[in-house]
Amino acid sequence: MKLFLFILIFSVQLLADTVKWSSSLPTNSVFKASPDLNDRVKFWVKVYSELSEKQGYLHDLDQPDLIFAKLDLRFIYNNPFLSYQQKKIKVEKYIKAEKLKVAKKWNITDLRYIRFQSGLKERMQKALFVSGRYLPMMEDIFKQKNLPIELTRLVFVESSFNIRAQSKVGASGLWQIMPSVAQEEGYISHFYDKRNHPFYATRLAADILKTNFQSTRSWPLAVTSYNHGLFGVKKMTQLSQSKDIADLIESDRKTRSWGFASENFYSCFLAVLEVERKAKLIFPDQNVKAKPLIMSRVITKKNLSKKIALQYFDNDYQKFLNYNPHLNITAIRKINAIPAGVPLVLPKKISSRYLKEASL
Asked: How far apart are CA 20 and CA 147, in angstroms?
């Protein structure tokens, strides 16, 4: 009986934190795949919507839609007798062996031109759910800056709406902003990193995209510049003597930094737009999404003790962390307080002598 009541209460609580699934994407959009990109976009739609994370494609590096083989790795991942590290080693060996088979069959001399792409279906489904917490806020910011709201879906490509996402090259947060960009804006201090603050990161991302578009006058190039950098994209337009993203991809003259990710970033973006629009058909069980997160932004007026801070979060430490992933908890623990001048996110509006409302 106790177990039944627990499940019932948990289910009611879960439903209370969700809303019915819907998409706010406009039906008419400026973001459409050109004939030259159609096949590339279709490839990424399959990756995001059909292919499990325990499956993958072996495909041509320069022409992703040329698929050599579909690999099913579940027999390794689902083996209960293997450790995580053993599974990783076996997967790498299996993929390499399959690449050798493909190379022999297709007469490919360089294995680097055979790329493995794992599926992202489960990650996409989870991101579609979690996106409900942040998209309303993101769309408001983009509307205020006269930017198409479709651009907020770049977060699907960048981080899959993982607020704690970190890249190998130092990019951080939902929008995967690089440290060099954030430091120029004063986003990083000893006690916080606004790249991990959903609101501030979205404002900065919107400014970057607006600057990119004003400079390139092309949304495909502006979006690609978000990943590759504006200077790098401009260099590629000079080398290819074109401002068409398809020409940049096909160009024989390329900079060292122009690689697979740069060539496919815009196509990935178009693919996630299509998957979201067709989510109910692609994922029939996608009935709900997370409820929009109430984010009351404040700044500490004076040092705030942990005890007082937790009171704003019903004394729930995990809730405090979930609302404030931008805080450097290690630094804050050392002084046993949140110092003055630190931005915080609260779950509701609170009047306090310790806090003042954020100006932006």
From this structure: 26
Give the position of tokens 């430091």. Answer: 183
Q: How far apart are CA 258 and CA 82, in angstroms?
A: 38
Determine the Cα–Cα distance for residues 190 and 184; give it in Å rounded to an integer. Answer: 15
| Separation of alpha carbons 209 and 121, rounded Å | 27
> What is the rounded CA–CA span in Å between residue 262 and residue 136?
28
Rounded CA-CA distance 65/49 in Å is 15
Per-residue pLDDT of the chain (360 residues; tens, 9 = 90+): 544 443 333 333 344 589 999 999 998 999 999 999 999 999 999 999 999 999 999 999 999 999 999 999 999 999 999 999 999 999 999 999 999 999 999 999 999 999 999 999 999 999 999 999 999 999 999 999 999 999 999 999 999 999 999 999 999 999 999 999 999 889 999 999 999 999 999 999 999 999 999 999 999 999 999 999 999 999 999 999 999 999 999 999 999 999 999 999 999 999 999 999 999 999 999 899 999 999 899 999 999 998 999 999 999 999 999 999 999 999 999 998 999 999 999 998 888 999 999 976
Q: Return d(Cα 25, Cα 278) in angstroms, integer.
A: 11
Instruction: Show the domains of the chain with their CATH numbers.
Output: 20-39+122-289 (1.10.530.10), 54-118 (no CATH), 294-357 (no CATH)
* Tokens coding 31: 């973001």
Q: Rounded to an integer, what distance in angstroms lies between the CA atom of residue 120 and that of residue 129?
A: 14
Per-residue tokens: 93 = 């060996």
What is the amino acid identity at position 168? K
